[in-house]
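hey so u asked for the seq, here:
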Amino acid sequence: MEQKQQPHIIDVIFVLALFGAFAFSSVMLIIIGSGIYRGTISNMQSNFETRTSASYICEKVRQGEQTAIRTIEGEDAIAIYKTYGDRDFITYLYHRDGYLCELFTSADTAIGSSTLAAGQKITELSSLQAEPASDSLIEIILENKNGSTSRLLLSSYSDDMGD
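ran it, structure tokens below
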């Protein structure tokens, strides 16, 4: 004769506890993974902004004929001089309201706060500092919104490649 065993309450509790532990582990893994993903995306965005700003400044300086550092409204600005035809122009790269900004203007235009407000926003940037490193080099320090910095060392004179 076969006897049927009655399920014990401990068997049911064990299965439920095992299922609960699996569900808890799965949820914790998702939470930890999303935190790591969020941090990675934030770092990538921060690096992208800094690299984009640095690349943009490098390319603009290379396109110019001469570069100088000017202080406008208490902020450092990179002035890039270029002649088109018989007219001289200046491109200003500067920090304003959390952005790297660019203003392209005639060399004889007076620059003030209302003029700087007309500049085009390029990328987000916490600060831009520029200082002479030697007679022909300028050092540019960029800081993004996360506090990481990049340093550029650029020649203040460019070879005109006939562009």
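Residues 41 and 140 are 26 Å apart (CA to CA). DSSP finds two helices and eight strands in the chain.
lmk if thats what u needed
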